[in-house]
TrEMBL record:
It comes from Desulfovibrio porci. The gene is folK. It comes from the Bacteria. This is 2-amino-4-hydroxy-6-hydroxymethyldihydropteridine pyrophosphokinase. Transmembrane segments: none annotated. Belongs to the HPPK family. Gene3D superfamilies: 7,8-Dihydro-6-hydroxymethylpterin-pyrophosphokinase HPPK (3.30.70.560).
Length: 171
């Protein structure tokens, strides 16, 4: 990569709160206010079936593309995203059974350019990205040629058992 190449970071946003659409708007606004970070593209909203813990409302999900200044690293962006989640009311349950339970807001760092990071706190690409239609479908809306571990996102999505009905994702 050339020293002047623009990094593109992709963040998955989700909420299944009563005001999920407003929460996603607030999360996008919070990201766009971070210094040296430009919100470049926003996918449509998708209504998605809960995974893991299924006894909860459906989620609204989308992916945003960010153009971070050169001082941003995956770890610093993730830390800023976690602070934003907390500010917006995200409470992480200590109960492992509720790891995928209801949430006011969820912000996942999916990709940070072509970087790979095995840091246990900040894994990039996101470790479950290639298993999640609710992340891959909106990612492909804004980045149709993006690659994950050298393989196109479209190829990863084609491997999944999912169904798209308009803006509803069943998986």
């Amino acid at each position: 990569m050339s020293p002047h190449a623009e990094i593109r970071a992709y963040v998955g946003l989700g909420s299944n709160s009563l005001d999920a659409e407003d929460m996603l708007t607030r999360a996008r606004e919070g990201l766009s206010r971070l210094p040296g970070l430009r919100l470049n593209a926003i996918s449509p909203l998708y209504s998605t079936e809960p995974q893991g813990y299924t006894d909860q409302p459906w989620f609204l999900n989308q992916v945003v593309e960010l153009l971070p200044a050169s001082f941003w690293r995956p770890q610093s962006l993730l830390a800023a995203m976690l602070r934003l989640e907390s500010k917006l009311g995200r409470v992480r349950s200590p109960d492992p059974a509720l790891r995928y339970g209801p949430r006011a807001i969820d912000a996942d760092l999916l990709l940070f350019g072509e970087e790979s990071c095995a840091d246990p706190v900040c894994r990039v690409p996101h470790p479950r990205l290639v298993q999640r239609a609710f992340a891959l479908v909106p990612l492909l809306d804004i980045a149709p040629h993006v690659r994950i571990d050298g393989i196109t996102a479209a190829h990863w999505l084609a491997r999944l058992n999912y169904r798209l009905d308009g803006r509803r994702i069943f998986q």
